[in-house]
Design brief:
This protein is of the alpha/beta class. It contains 15 helices and 12 strands. Bound molecules: pyridoxal-5'-phosphate (PLP). The site of pyridoxal-5'-phosphate (PLP) has 12 residues, from helix 4.
Length: 396
Amino acid sequence: MKGQEQSDYGHETHAVRGGRVPTAEGEHSEPIFLTSSFVFQSAAQAAARFAGEQPGNIYSRFTNPTVRAFETRLAAMEEGERCIATASGMSAILSVCLGLLKSGDHIVASRSVFGTTMVLFDNILSRLGVRTTWVDLTDYAAWQAAITPATRLLFLETPSNPLSRVADIGRLAKLASSRDCLLVVDNCFCTSALQKPLRYGAHLVIHSATKYLDGQGRCIGGAVVGPESLLGEAIFPFLRAAGPSMSPFNAWVFLKGLETLEIRMRAHCEQAQRLAEWLRDKEQVEQVHYPGLQDHPEHALAKRQQTGFGGIVSFVVRGGQDAAWRVIDATRVFSITANLGDTRSTITHPATTTHHRLSDAQREAAGIVPGLIRLSAGMETLDDLITDLERGLGTP
Ligand SMILES: *Cc1c(COP(=O)(O)O)cnc(C)c1O
């Protein structure tokens, strides 16, 4: 770690120490390089940098030392060759698509992905001649049937939002490789602390650093992790030219976030498990969706593929939307917000917020029923969260 990376260190060691390049000042914590450009020692050196003949910084849209520290650390944590940081999770997805695809190409994507990803694929990429076919996350026959000779990417999130369905990454990675496609996994819900998609054969991993990587709701950022062959030749040139680069200040905040990621994810998982078990036993709760419960349809797969079940729990209350809104409005500790992955617990009504754009039939098919509530388990005292939920569930 003193100067160079050692790949055989454990996840926690990478999280705390990865990517550090100390300066001559002897600082212990990483400095923030808030500079838009870099100076050269001579005209010849400038020319060599611009020609790509000499490595080194030119301009912070291309590279920046603080951003590179974050990239190096996250690449080590995901066990990827390289990481490219982006201005947001959405620009990470955009950089993958515009870096790798051209007009006429085709994407097969899980229907249960982040709402804005659906908007990006359906409303924006479609205008550039890139078509998307949507399939059920766990319907492997549907994935297979949807692939055409034009398909370049298979795209998914696992566990899914908000029902926490879990897909077999290895199985879909094999399918992708056998059909000359790339499997892209948005690893936002688990993070590298709980799931390493590249280990199972995924080709690229996406992060919204905005969520658990920061973990305290401060900054917007994203990342793509994968092999140099894809990142160096296709995705970095897009980023460098189009400009959705990560700010060095945000990179520094995320570096601090990564240092506590492992321990925070364990705490989120434990809190979510306890909330899920408490909800399961409530008379007024019809169903609880959490991969850590024995009766979850992919409990065994989640146990094999993940080292924890995650911090997101959703449940259905009896009485539909009125009952769900009553529970949400009765809370005093939970924040009513669609954000997730924060130290503070959040509560959302998916049918009228994150999934309001869908038609009633689409929502029904996706399992987003009117009584569904999604929680992101934070780090408050468990009893306070339970008292909060009890208040709304107890009201007749
Ligand atoms: C939030 C989110 C995104 C988008 O990330 P931003 O940082 O908000 O752009 C992408 N995927 C998932 C799963 C998310 O939760």
